[in-house]
Structures are given as C-alpha cells and as structure tokens.
C-alpha cells in the first residue's frame, strides 16, 4: 500500500445560486482529478452562502440534489470526495453536514457539525449558528487505502479534545472544511491548524470558500495543509483556486519516532475520555 496521497483542497467561489455553486464544485472535482488528486475536499457550505439567514432556505435532505451531484462526480472521476458541508434538513431540524464519497459513489461517512459557532467578539463578529442549526453528536472517520481520516467542520477545529479523540482512533489526517472570517481568520485559522497537527502529530487540512467581499459573511480563505511537524505544506490567499498537496503518511511515523509523545504521555495523570 502506498504511503503517498495527493490531496486537493478546493477553495470554491460560493454565491447565491445553489445550482451554480454545485456545478462549479463538480467542475473543480473533475479538474482536481485530472491533476492526479486522489482525495478532493470542498469547503464548508459549498452550495450556500454562509449565514444563518440562508441555512433553512438552502437546506435539503442528505442525500439530496447537492450531495447526489458530488457523489456522481466522485464516481465519474474515480476519486474520494469530502463534500465540505451543506445545510441538511431532517425531521424539522437543520444541520451543517459533511458527506464523504468513495470512488465508486459509495457514501463513506456523514458528519454533522458538533460544535455550533456562537461567538460575540467585541468590535468584530457576532454569530449564532445555534439560532437555526442543531448540532451533531458523533465522531466521523473514514478509511482511505493510505490512512484513516477524521472530519470536523470549522468551529470543531477549536476543540482540541475532538482532534485528540480522532488521533487516538488512528487518524493520520484530519480535514476541516471551514469558513473563518476577517476577525478570527487572520489570527486563529492557521494557528489552530498547526496546533491540532503538532499536538496529535497528524496532517491537518482546512478548506475555505473563496472570499466574496460583497457577502454578509466574508470568508478568510487560506485553505491550507499542515504536516505533523506543523510546517505549511501548501496554502493560498483568498481567491478561488485549488490547493494541491502531496502527503507522505510515512512521515507521520517518522515525526512520532523523533518526538515520541505517544509513549511519553502520562496516562497515570490525565486522559481524554469519549462519552459518545
Ligand atoms: O471559529 C471561528 O472563528 C470561525 C468558525 C466558523 O466560521 C464556523 O464554525 O463556521
């Protein structure tokens, strides 16, 4: 089994037309596959502008029109796709949901954002996802031939425990479709990603929509892949584009040998415990 993985992070321009957003995403999956990507990841809310006023209007069941299109794109191009997220409607509730598709069009995983983004930064941003969204209650992983992958959505990245749980489950790559903003993005986006990577000695990828300065919520962009040493492997600014990154999963082992946190952890003093 190869230890090499070519990953594409699609920093998609997302506007008000769901149809355009989805067909653009499909086109980018095709483009990434033609460049040799084996795993293609889309941003949070790839089919919908990010904002509490939009989620109910754009919400659809899963599978539904947007996720079916992604499934077909995965199948047609023979790639794994981490389908960013869509507002998902089920049982009168709306979730922020990521679907993961295999190269044969099989649904490998579904993650509902666990930590809802409710913050109030003085002079900056106030946002309350919990006004309209419900949280998921489970961890989400899937297996690639190369490694196990853990999924979180945006605000989930701020919770170190979740990444630790994924690492304990054996994930060597964590992917966070996300849409940070112009207040928190410049200071926290890359730092959080590096923190999760360094603490857990894993690769961490973030995938943002492109920045649209006319939108009510202006995304930070900067889709990035960080390696287990906390080096930035590949990144970009805020325009639409595809970030390609070549991962070497053997490097995870190498870092863990050089800095053996796993065997030095003081299980007699502390422990991360899963309750669900
Ligand atoms: O944590 C942040 O600063 C941004 C989070 C966010 O935008 C989200 O969860 O969608």
Automatic annotation (TrEMBL):
One of its GO terms (cellular component) is mitochondrion. GO terms for molecular function: omega-amidase activity. It catalyses: 2-oxosuccinamate + H2O = oxaloacetate + NH4(+); 2-oxoglutaramate + H2O = 2-oxoglutarate + NH4(+). Keywords: Hydrolase. Its EC number is 3.5.1.3. InterPro entries: C-N_Hydrolase, C-N_Hydrolase_sf, Nit1/2_C-N_Hydrolase. CDD domains: nit. One of its GO terms (biological process) is glutamine metabolic process. Residues 5-249 form the CN hydrolase domain. It is an enzyme of class 3 (hydrolase). It comes from Penaeus vannamei. PROSITE patterns: CN_HYDROLASE. This is omega-amidase. Pfam families: CN_hydrolase (PF00795). It comes from the Eukaryota. Belongs to the carbon-nitrogen hydrolase superfamily. NIT1/NIT2 family.
């Amino acid at each position: 089994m190869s230890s090499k993985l070519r990953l594409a992070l699609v920093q998609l321009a997302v506007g008000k037309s769901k149809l355009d957003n989805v067909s653009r995403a499909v086109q980018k999956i095709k483009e990434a596959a033609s460049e040799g990507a084996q795993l293609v990841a889309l941003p949070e809310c790839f089919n919908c502008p990010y904002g509490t006023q939009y989620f109910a209007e754009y919400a659809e069941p899963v599978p539904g029109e947007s996720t079916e299109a992604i499934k077909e794109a995965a199948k047609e191009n023979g790639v794994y796709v981490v389908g960013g997220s869509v507002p998902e409607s089920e049982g009168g509730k709306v979730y922020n949901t990521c679907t993961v598709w295999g190269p044969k069009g099989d649904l490998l995983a579904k993650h509902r954002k666990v930590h809802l983004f409710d913050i109030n930064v003085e002079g900056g941003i106030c946002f309350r996802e919990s006004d309209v969204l419900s949280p998921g209650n489970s961890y989400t992983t899937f297996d690639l031939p190369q490694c196990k992958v853990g999924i979180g959505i945006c605000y989930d990245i701020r919770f170190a425990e979740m990444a630790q749980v994924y690492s304990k489950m054996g994930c060597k790559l964590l992917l966070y479709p996300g849409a940070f903003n112009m207040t928190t993005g410049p200071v926290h986006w890359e730092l959080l990603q590096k923190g999760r990577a360094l603490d857990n000695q894993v690769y961490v990828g973030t995938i943002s929509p492109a920045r649209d300065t006319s939108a009510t919520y202006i995304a930070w962009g900067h889709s990035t892949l960080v390696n287990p040493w906390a080096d930035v492997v590949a990144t970009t600014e805020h325009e639409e584009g595809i970030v390609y990154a070549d991962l070497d999963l053997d490097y995870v082992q190498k870092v863990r040998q050089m800095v053996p946190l796993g065997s030095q952890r003081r299980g007699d003093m502390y422990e991360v415990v899963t309750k669900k």
